[in-house]
Amino acid sequence: MTVLAILASFSAMAADSAGDEVENLVVLLTDYGTSDFYVGALEGSIYSANPEARISTITHEVLAFNVAEGSYILAQAARYYPPGTVFAAEVDPVVGTVERSIVLETNDSKIFVGPDNGLFTGVMDELGIDCVREITNLNLTGQGRTSATFDGMEIYGPVAGHLAARTDPAEVGPEIFDPVRIEVVEGDLEDGTLIGTVAHVDHWGNLVTNIPKELAEMADLSPGDRVEITVGGENVEAAFATTYGDVPQGEWVAVIGLLGRLEIAINMGSAAEALGVSAGSEVRVHKI
After folding, report:
1. pLDDT per residue over 6-20, tens digit each?
2. Domain end (from 176, 198, 231)
3. pLDDT tens digit string along 254-266?
């Protein structure tokens, strides 16, 4: 089965379950990594609040402190989970400050628990906002206290566990109307040049941009064309192709990826390592 077929089946399953909300499902996304005890402590805080919880993980390998990348990954994965799913997420460069902790309910009946720092920007844009509340009820958090370093274990995990057990979200605290959003630069086309940013660097080092295929079509790009790409001040020439294997190993290629966005890659190599760039880098592409 192809990756496209697998994701299509996930999407269909989520749609089929739209009328029945799941219970006790908590999904995690963090920049904790997996070499320390932090992930285990986060999961433990969820089980302590809700022993019946089932835990699924998107990733714990978001680039450290990169809220923009966390927002992108979370939004792309969340669409495949069924209504009723509760997400606990933490990517926070200023953890322990006066920043609010929030619960976001989306229009498709999913719940997100985490910092009010823009991490849920992609979710708000993709899934819509039903209600946002500030977490003030310490009875739903770990031991009725907060941590100065990791809010995940003391706030987000326990609150997510309670919400997955069908605690009314209204119990977490008052509704707010000004959740923080990060500034997202939309893809654009100017004088034949596609302009955007690297939204995500995937496991293979491919640069997933925020430039949609519709803009590539407006730029009159077709498989077989040659393009000049500028990323983070570095210039490369690549083939615009249908898939990575359309060029020899080690060659640069630009394709429209799984999510309908322009991707920049090296066949069987890492574009990110070759260019020394990460999420947030500016991208410019024009036909030669």
Report:
1. 455 555 444 444 458
2. 176
3. 999 998 999 999 9
Name, in order, each residue with C-beta under 8 angstroms of 263's C-beta and a sequence gap of 6 or more. 206, 207, 208, 209, 254, 255, 256, 257
Instruction: Based on the fold, state whether residues 23 and 160 are members of the same structural domain.
Output: yes
Q: Which domain holds residue 216?
A: 188-287
Query: Helix 157-164 and helix 38-49: axis angle, to 10°?
Result: 40
Per DSSP, the residues of 6-70 read: HHHHHHHHHHHTTTS--SSEEEEEES--SSSSHHHHHHHHHHHH-TT-EEEEEES-SPTT-HHHH
Residue 143: predicted pLDDT: 62
- Total-model pTM: 0.85
Burial class (CB in 10 A: 0-12, 13-18, 19+), 269: middle
- Measuring CA to CA, which residue among 120, 283, 123 is closest to residue 201? 283
The answer to whether residues 221 and 240 touch, using CB atoms and an 8 Å cutoff, is yes
Q: Is residue 199 part of a domain?
A: yes
**Edge-to-edge strand ranges of the sheet holding 25-30:** 54-59, 25-30, 86-90, 111-115, 101-106, 129-134, 175-176
Give the DSSP letter string of 204-248.
T--EEEEEEHHHHHHTT--TT-EEEEEETTEEEEEEE-SSGGGS-
- Is 246 part of a structural domain of the chain? yes
- Residue that wins the pLDDT comparison between 170 and 17: 170
Q: Which of 156, 176, 196 is the last residue of a domain?
A: 176
Judge if 161 and 86 occupy the same domain: yes
